[in-house]
Amino acid sequence: MIQISDLTFSWPGQSKPTLDIANLSIPKGERLFLHGPSGSGKSTLLGLLAGIQIPQKGSIKMLDQELGKLSDTKRDRFRADHIGTIFQNFNLLPYLSPVENVMLGCNFSKRRVEKLRLSNTTAQHQANTLLEELGIDAQTRSRSVGELSIGQQQRVAAARAFIGQPELIIADEPTSALDADNRDVFINQLFEQATHYQATILFVSHDASLAHLFNRKVSLLDINGAAL
Amino acid sequence: MKLITLAFKSISNRKASVLLTLFTIAISVMLLLSIERVRQEAKQSFSNTISGTDLIVGARTGDIQLLLSSVFRIGHATNGLSWQSYQYIKQQKGVAWTIPISLGDSHKGFAVLGSDENYFQHFRYGKKQSLTFTHGRAYHNAQEVVIGSEVAKQLHYHLGQQVVIAHGMGNTSFHNHDDNPLTIVGILAPTGTPVDKTLHVPLKAIELMHGPTHRVNTTTIVRNNDSSHDEHEHHEHHEHHEHGHHDHNVRESEPGDLIGEPTQLTAFLMGFDSPLYTLQVRRNINTYKPEALSAIMPGVTLRELWGMLDIVEKILMLFSAVVVLISLLGMLTTLLSSLSQRRRELAILRSVGARPKHIFTLMCSEAILITALGSLIGIAMFYLLILVSKGMLQAQFGIAISLSLLSGYELILLSVIMVSGTVIGAIPAIRAYFYSLNDGMSIKV
């Protein structure tokens, strides 16, 4: 799924590289817990994986595609097609309804729309299905985003990440705003969906206590040669 | 979902600030359009006041002064020109027609103009339009008067009614010629010129009113002469004494002498067989030995006069342009200040695959939407304003504002506003573009 080798990245104007990863490979279908305390280069790595930045040295291969060799536009399109993202919190656009927020995942990707068409459904229908599966009932779906609890918002964000079946879900501290009960429920729902839609999960958190729920745990501090 | 829908939903989410911005843009657009429309129409009705006249001749005075007194009935024509000179110049080669004008009397604040039948035959205004009657006909003898549309409207006069002319130009006038009541035989159609506010009488009527003892200075315009006020105040009550008469049709009257034996005129208008004569005759008049006279070409002098008002016009224009600019800068402020709060929104859009150019388009279309909506509201307010103030402008300033469609010029103004709005909107859009390039998906607040 993902193969990183000999990667170095430094931000413009900085002499020391922020990231220096010799090797990281994530097989398809894995649920990887990436432990990344602050200062470990976590955001930078996610930016590289999403194709926002490109490495100065080394390579990132995703789905056998060398990200660094794609044009800016193609990388943006690649992200839209293959990666779903869940942020820490405030994932949603406040001026769209929950369903519209989920459908936003299809807005910039022809591939996701095409996939929905092949499975005989529409973005609207699939958005409702996903929300239902994640425990957001019809009544909640009709509310405005601002009226949802943080837990509900995160599940809407998860639905948006999953719509149109992208291969990789990047979850950047999605549970840090949730309490312990909600957190476990959320992660389990995430896994269920990942199984159902055959997605690989890259879960990034500074909270190592969640690691036991995952197949594998990698600490950025260990693999990043440039970390403090 | 289209980007434009997204932009629309995004701005409707920020109602308060967006509404305020919309409102300022709407007001500024309304202001600009109104000022421009009034300016255009004022200029239009100004230059439409007289047409088809090649020369205006009066006693030696400034060009603009002569124009103001003879055409706009404003100011003092301190001297008249003698009847002999008029008769002489009239005979010159190439003269097609002349219209003698004798001003100086008034009726309830409206100017009284003495002339002859040539006035109705040859006077032209606007685009060489001649005077037409809504009711009645031209005067045939010295006991008849033809009134302008505003006079009829404001004083509720109708055909057959008798009116009394006062000497001088005051409203509460000094000396009413109440021994010479005149019958209204004609009401002119509206022209949007000073003609509407004028009572037209034969020269002879003026002569008769003043009688042999009043011969002095019948053609002199005396404006609101306070010294003579007390002396003649007691005549005021006569003004309404003929209000009883109603709507009997005007009988055809005996044609009589319209001219009489005047000694002086305020001015006269001339038309030539060919415009080629204009300069030659003008030179002859200006060097006319027996009397010091001035001859002006009304078109040229109108332009000169408008040129004097040009600076006022330009300042008005400048002010309304600045108001528009300020409103657009207001929009810039709103968009820029909201931008920092919206970096998260941009990051979310980036994460679902929006490219920087999408972010740019999104931000730009917001500015365009706001400017366009503001302009539309402004146009609506502009028409509302015209509708409301139309009557007042016509009555007070004689400016006829039409409720017509936007002119090409006004459309150009609006497109300039739209383009400026877009350019100004590009500023936050460019910032957002770079934010989205640098921030990427990492959320920075």
Residue share in helix of chain B: 40-55%
Number of strands of chain B: 16
Radius of gyration of chain B: 31 Å
Q: Identify the most extensive interface between protein chains.
A: A-B, 31 and 22 residues
Question: How do the strands and helices of this protein lay out in sequence?
Answer:
The complex is a heterodimer of chains A (228) and B (445).
Chain A: E1 2-9, E2 19-26, E3 31-35, H1 42-49, E4 57-62, E5 65-66, H2 72-82, E6 83-86, H3 98-107, H4 110-118, H5 123-133, H6 138-141, H7 150-162, E7 168-172, H8 180-196, E8 200-205, E9 216-219, H9 220-223
Parallel strand pairs in A: 3-8, 3-9, 6-7, 7-8
Antiparallel strand pairs in A: 1-2, 1-4, 4-5
Helix pairs in contact in A: 3-5, 3-7, 7-8
Chain B: H1 3-13, H2 15-47, E1 55-59, H3 63-71, E2 81-82, H4 83-90, E3 95-107, E4 110-115, H5 118-122, E5 124-125, E6 129-130, E7 133-136, E8 144-147, H6 149-155, E9 162-163, E10 166-167, E11 175-176, E12 182-188, E13 198-202, H7 203-210, H8 229-232, E14 264-265, E15 267-272, H9 276-286, E16 293-296, H10 298-341, H11 343-351, H12 356-397, H13 408-439
Parallel strand pairs in B: 4-13, 8-12
Antiparallel strand pairs in B: 1-15, 1-16, 2-14, 3-4, 3-10, 3-15, 5-6, 7-12, 8-13, 9-12, 10-11
